[in-house]
Design goal:
The chain is mainly alpha-helical. 76% of the residues lie in helices and 0% in strands. The protein is globular, with a radius of gyration of 20 Å.
Length: 330
């Protein structure tokens, strides 16, 4: 009974994190407020700081709130193992790029289109799993990848609304769909590679996942600061890195920082089928909220057909993974 409760709790957490992050990020990037808009590069840096702090607190809790034990484990696992720590530089740099690309994508795409298109990460993760981990995919999984590509192609199919007249003055900016789709595609590739690379590192060592996330966060903080100064250095020097921050911005940063850690904590209770339900519910919720609340999305029959194919592909991919001796994680 407790196990079933944890499963459904996992489902709720996964749906909430996935949906709320996408919707709040989209809202924050299209919100028309006085003053400058917050810097996406700054939000990525602050999220890394939050993630490091959260992971340090989790390690502190694991060692019975002992400062001496915390100091010892951080020295032993990070400072005294520079080669092991350096291995995390590659996925960390890619994750930093990916986090910045998500802001670019959601500045140019509505939440529903983004959610569906981003499911291409299943395809990239599967391909990198085959090439880097030597995984073997079954017939149903290869079929699901074809269905997934067809679904995403339908979602991106040009519609009559694309040629509609420009929105009124009070309407939020729609951005460039081409830029948004390009950002999502690059993010899918980076997500697939970095996820499989990180999984490979975790399997080769016995370090705590929280220690590994601290290592990722440290490199991510360095890469993020470098990117912020290189891309937005003039604006940071002029108005500070926290320019344009408001309650919505802080919600986005917190969800981005803590979301991955929450998923890491609950994913052991969720199998591939449950993850498929979470993805499907998240797509449906994002579509409904984008249409009724954000009002930045005009659904078409082609979009719904593509979304149904993507949802079906998600279930089909997880179906065989459930029975296989070495299921692939997307």
């Amino acid at each position: 009974m407790a196990s079933a409760r944890l499963k459904y709790l996992s489902l709720g957490v996964l749906v909430f994190q996935t949906t709320s992050l996408v919707l709040t990020m989209r809202y924050s990037r299209t919100l028309q407020a006085e003053g400058p808009r917050y810097l996406a590069s700054s939000a990525v840096v602050v999220a890394e700081m939050m993630k490091i702090l959260a992971c340090v607190l989790l390690v502190f809790k694991e060692h019975n709130y002992s400062m001496r034990a915390l100091n010892a484990i951080l020295r032993q696992e990070i400072a005294h193992k520079p080669i092991e720590t350096l291995k995390l530089a590659i996925p960390s740099g890619i994750y930093t790029l990916q986090n910045n690309l998500l802001y670019v994508a959601l500045s140019n795409l509505d939440a529903a289109t983004y959610q569906v298109t981003y499911q291409l990460k299943i395809l990239t993760t599967a391909l990198f799993s085959v090439s880097m981990l030597g995984r073997r995919l079954g017939v149903y999984q290869w079929l699901s990848l074809l269905v997934l590509m067809a679904g995403v192609a339908l979602v991106q199919w040009p519609s009559e609304s694309a040629a509609a007249p420009p929105p009124e003055k009070d309407a939020p900016p729609s951005g460039s769909q081409l830029v948004g789709v390009a950002a999502v595609l690059v993010a899918c590739c980076s997500s697939g590679f970095a996820g499989v690379y990180f999984e490979k590192i975790l399997k080769e060592t016995k370090q705590s996942v929280w220690i590994r996330n601290i290592q990722l966060g440290l490199f991510g903080l360095v890469f993020g600061l470098f990117g912020m100064l290189a891309y937005d250095g003039d604006r940071v020097r002029e108005s500070g890195m926290f320019q344009g921050y408001n309650a919505v911005t802080w919600a986005v940063v917190a969800l981005q920082a803590l979301g991955g850690l929450v998923i890491a904590a609950v994913i052991k209770y969720a199998d591939n089928i449950l993850k498929g339900f979470a993805t499907s519910l998240s797509i449906i919720l994002s579509t409904l909220i984008s249409y009724f609340l954000l009002q930045d999305f005009d659904p078409t029959g082609v979009f719904f057909a593509g979304a149904i194919l993507v949802i079906a592909a998600t279930f089909l991919y997880g179906y065989e993974g459930r029975a296989a001796p070495n299921p692939s994680r997307a």
